[in-house]
Amino acid sequence: MICLGIESTAHTFGVGIMDENGKILANAKDSYTTEQGGIHPTEAKNHHIACKDKVVEDALKEAGITMDDVDLISFSQSPGMAPCLVIGMEKAKELARKYKKPLIGINHCIAHLEIGRKLCGCEDPVMLYASGANTQIIAYEGGKYRIFGETLDNGIGNFLDGFARYMGMGFPGGPKIYSLALEGKEYIELPYVVKGMDVSFGGIQTNLKQKYDSGKFSKEDLCYSCQETVFAMLVEVSERAMAHCEKKELLLGGGVACNKRLQEMCENMCKARDAKCFLPPNGVLVDNGAMIAWEGIIEYKSRGADKIDDLDIKPYERTDDVKVEWR
Ligand code: ATP
Ligand code: FE2
Fold first, then answer.
1. Kindly report the CA angle at 179 between 173 and 185, in degrees rounded to 5?
2. Among 256, 259, 319, which residue has the most ligand 1 atoms within 8 Å of its CB, making it the best to mutate?
3. Is 315 in the pocket of ligand 1 (CB under 6 A)?
4. CB–CB of 2/103 below 8 Å?
């Protein structure tokens, strides 16, 4: 079985093609970026409209197949920015109707988890899902992927991107903060906000901006201290969830998980508690179509296709709203 998956929850329009053994046949994408300022939903939507046909073509070409070889189409139905989600869904419906293929809607967060599980070969991990809009600690318990901890305000990526934007850098800011942090020498104390298994970044954001405005600190030291502080928070809540659930595997997901410093801190924590840390390749950490295709295959096998006319986007669906019938 070959599935073509369409991702369009936010800045990225992605089309992935997977087979049922978990082989990535293609993972094409086009991402909306800015030189200055953050992501604007209408601009992201227009970006998706402009590139959608080309990205589908690119993926088919990369896989060396045609639509006739595709057995199933999937798309990210939730959660995300409504104007962006609609474009992916419309393209998926168009292809499903034109080529008479079954269609299935997918939860983006769960797709991050399942592609990681497949590619890394881990069984039953706690996932630290650190992306732009989402920051959650997720694990499987009692028939669902449950959220054991999460951000009480911004996602970590949006927090990092917001601080980068404040310092005049464009989107995405995460990689720029990472590069500057490498040059940082002195740790500047920042608020550290962990409440049980939840985290919050709003106060740290304000504090960082004030420190930046004071002109007393270098960008490098601020970026370094920022990363050390907020990543330590993520590692702490991940470790607490692993202890609570008695799980021995940590899986990383989301674009911020590309950050080498976060990866290193997670690996150190796992080593110290005799657990394993799994790092999927960057191509499936950031938003991508391959994970949507893979999740399409596993959900289709357990619950079959959705009815095309009934399908609508679910911008606010939560990870624990989804009934996990395939595990
Ligand atoms: P989601 O829809 O899952 O919430 P998202 O749409 O925001 O996620 P992702 O691609 O998962 O998108 O993550 C984007 C975030 O990842 C941005 O904040 C960006 O700065 C950060 N990021 C991407 N690549 C890197 C990298 N190499 N190093 C550090 N941060 C990165
Ligand atoms: Fe994502």
1. 120
2. 256
3. no
4. no
User: Within this chain, do residues 221 and 267 fall inside the same structural domain, yes or no?
Assistant: yes
With contact defined as beta carbons under 8 Å apart, do 130 and 234 qualify?
yes
Residue 66 CB coordination number (10 Å):
10
How many domains is the chain partitioned into structurally?
A: 2
The CB of 259 under 6 Å from ligand 1? The reply is yes
Q: Are 298 and 270 found together in one domain?
A: no
Q: Which residue, judged by its Cα, is nearest atom 23 of ligand 1?
A: 255
Do 251 and 296 reside in the same domain of the chain? Answer: no
Is the pTM for the entire model greater than 0.90? yes
Expressed as residue numbers, the domain containing 189 is: 124-282
* Model confidence pLDDT, tens digit, residues 257-276: 999 999 999 999 999 999 99
CA of 256 to the centre of ligand 1 (A): 5
How confident is the model over 124-147, as a mean pLDDT?
Answer: 95
Q: Please give the structure tokens belonging to residue 301.
A: 């096998």
If asked whether residues 35 and 130 sit together in one domain, one would say no
Model pLDDT for residues 54-106, shown as the tens digit of each residue: 999 999 999 999 999 999 999 999 999 999 999 999 999 999 999 999 999 99
Q: Rounded to the nearest 10 degrees, what angle do helices 82-99 and 41-63 cross at?
A: 30
Q: What is the CATH number of the domain that holds 232?
A: 3.30.420.40
Cβ of residue 79 lying under 6 Å from some atom of ligand 1: no
